[in-house]
Amino acid sequence: MAHSDRIKGMEKRLEKLGAAFAKRKGLSNDAPWVREAPSDTDRWCTEHTKTYNEHWQKEGRPSPYEPFPPEKYVGHLFELFDLERIVFIEKSRDLMVSWACVAYFTLHAMRVPPRHQGGSLCGWLKCR
């Protein structure tokens, strides 16, 4: 079986699994919040994701999973990422800058449509 046929087969299985999961949970890709959630990085991070806090018990938190904190500086950081191609950040461990970077790039990676050029990439790597 050709590599492209395997990829197409996996895509079809993933679609079926996603549809079955959504049906079981009563979710719909047509829901307004599904379209709005990824429209703004700051909104997506603060309203539609959760971060894991490994120190949650020491800090007396009710759960290890919490929404991304709605800090203004994080929104400004996301705006900066959109405006500049290269950004240097002097960071502090307490400002969640690393998490903000991961969140930003995760959302933007999810927005990029799949290219399915695995075969050509493999060929390129063999040439090197």
Short description:
With 128 residues, this protein is mainly alpha-helical. The chain has 6 helices and 2 strands; from the N terminus they run αααββααα.
Structural notes for this entry:
By secondary structure, the protein is mainly alpha-helical. It has two domains: 27 residues; 83 residues, no CATH class. 56% of the residues lie in helices and 5% in strands. It has six helices and two strands, in the order αααββααα. The chain has a two-stranded antiparallel ribbon. Helix 4 crosses helix 5. The two termini are 25 Å apart.
Topology at a glance:
Blueprint: H1 3-25, H2 32-36, H3 41-47, E1 50-52, E2 65-67, H4 72-83, H5 97-111, H6 118-127
Antiparallel strand pairs: 1-2
Helix pairs in contact: 3-5, 4-5
* Radius of gyration (Å): 19 Å
User: How many separate domains?
Assistant: 2
Count the strands? 2
Q: Tell me the strand percentage band.
A: under 5%
The percent of residues in helical segments reads: 55-70%
Q: Helical stretch count?
A: 6
User: How widely separated are the two ends?
Assistant: 25 Å
- Biggest β-sheet description: 2 strands, antiparallel
Q: Structural class of the helices, strands and pairings?
A: mainly alpha
Which of globular, elongated, flat, extended, rod-shaped describes the shape? Answer: globular
Strand order of the largest sheet: 1-2
Q: Which regions contain 5 or more consecutive residues with pLDDT less than 50? A: none
Order of helices and strands: HHHEEHHH
Mean pLDDT across every amino acid position: 77
